[in-house]
Amino acid sequence: MRSALALLLLTTPAHAWEAGTDGRLCTLSHVQPDAEVRLTYDSVGPVYTITVTTPAPWPVAPLFSIRFTGERGLTISTDRHTTDETGRALTVTDSGFGNVLNGLEFNRTATAFAGDAAAVLDLEGAAPAVQRFRDCTVAPAV
Fold first, then answer.
1. Helices 98-106, 126-137: crossing angle, 10 deg rounding
2. Binning pLDDT at 50, 70 and 90, where does residue 132 land?
3. Which of 58, 50, 54, 57 is nearest to 29 (CA)?
4. Alpha carbons 132 and 28: distance in angstroms, whole number
């Protein structure tokens, strides 16, 4: 029984936060069974994006919000969001993401919501990846 449990734990995919680069973009991403989030920073703009993808389409809603719960809880909202052709990927683009990065780094959960749909993101282990993302955004352009 113990070996079966160990095998199950070894084969269960890790849902870690990852930071890196994709060409000239700095990236931060996290995948879990019910939601995927990807942030990018493009120094050419400079512009940040956050995309939250869910199995079901996001509803048409006047606002998209993210509520951070934890040590530095806050809720931020925008009406400048778009969805892709499937409706499953909701994206916000802006020239600054300080509140988003602080929320991801210093809290326990983030709930992204629009209309009556929501995706809860586990922020365990996000802080080191967020710091690597921040470091990338201030690195000299190559």
1. 150
2. very high
3. 50
4. 9
The tokens 């973009």 sit on which residue? 25
CA dihedral 48, 53, 57, 62 (to 10 degrees): -30
Tell me which residue of 142, 104, 94, 90 sits closest to 19, measured CA to CA. 104
Measured distance CA(84)–CA(133) in Å, rounded: 24
Three-class secondary structure assignment of 65-107 = EEEEECCCCEEEEECCEEECCCCCEEEEEECCCHHHHHHHHHC
| pLDDT tens digits, one per residue of 22-80 | 888 999 999 999 999 999 999 998 899 999 999 999 999 999 999 999 999 999 999 99
- Looking at domain 26-137, its CATH architecture is Sandwich (2.60)
Do residues 28 and 130 make contact, with C-beta atoms less than 8 angstroms apart? Answer: yes
Whether residue 4 is predicted with pLDDT greater than 60 in this model: the reply is no
Q: What is the pLDDT of residues 100-111, one digit of tens each?
A: 999 999 999 999
CB neighbours (10 Å) of residue 136?
A: 17
Domain boundaries, the chain: 26-137
